[in-house]
Amino acid sequence: xxxxxxxxxxxxxxxxxxxxxxxxxxxxxxxxxxxxxxxxxxxxxxxxxxxxxxxxxxxxxxxxxxxxxxxxxxxxxxxxxxxxxxxxxxxxxxxxxxxxxxxxxxxxxxxxxxxxxxxxxxxxxxxxxxxxxxxxxxxxxxxxxxxxxxxxxxxxxxxxxxxxxxxxxxxxxxxxxxxxxxxxxxxxxxxxxxxxxxxxxxxxxxxxxxxxxxxxxxxxxxxxxxxxxxxxxxxxxxxxxxxxxxxxxxxxxxxxxxxxxxxxxxxxxxxxxxxxxxxxxxxxxxxxxxxxxxxxxxxxxxxxxxxxxxxxxxxxxxxxxxxxxxxxxxxxxxxx
Length: 336
Description:
Strand content: 25-35%
Distance between the termini: 12 Å
CATH topology of the largest domain: FAD/NAD(P)-binding domain
Radius of gyration: 21 Å
Structural class: alpha/beta
Largest sheet: 9 strands, mixed
Number of strands: 18
């Protein structure tokens, strides 16, 4: 079995650690802060490959969730609140209707859409329905990590990786604040911080931080039973009655602060879709930095250049959704 270092304790790193340790590889995961400290811990938990315009990779990953969830819940004792259901994408304009009628969703008319979700804007022209799901990202992360440890993985939080160690055109480990660690393979899953680690060993990664802002609303009554998506934004009803509104996509460097403009954009969308949300309480607002690529597709594979390095980053806003399929892809690379 291989000795493997995983750099990064977000959902991608934790999913990889769980999958590799399940196959008895000797895995050590290194996270400079705490697990889920950045984008993974801030995510809403939307698993929406269809309404988000996803491709085969996203659809495949969604299909892997039931088996993965059953495994990690049984092993860890942590309920991840996975719920399969429907997403509703309302048509609020004529252009919306034309686009959604051409999509792979099930089109329903205005009356049917309002019967399903009575709080929708009364001007809705119809909606497309998609089979999608959601879960609790913090719980999902905790279940992955706990299962990985039970399977023999070592997880070290507060472990700052200063550099990758390269010798004779091969990455042989990492340099940390507590000393050097050696491994047969190193998996770089450090989100938007991956390029700064890869560059010194001759690996160029076009991954940049993309700020996503979100907020939680508490309405006076339950207004929504399905996930709602519209032009890349979404409203997600949670079991406690709150509704999460997300999410912006902003290239502002490594700035994870919440802004008035970001909140205004989210509220404008939320109130347009569900006007009754105007009386809801704003419970929380937050932001995080996602790893974005120019074409929106993740970078998963053997690094171009030195041997011994696998890259798994650039998942942008689909990190939670793509975690299972990414872990399977990395396992295949390790096993090849």
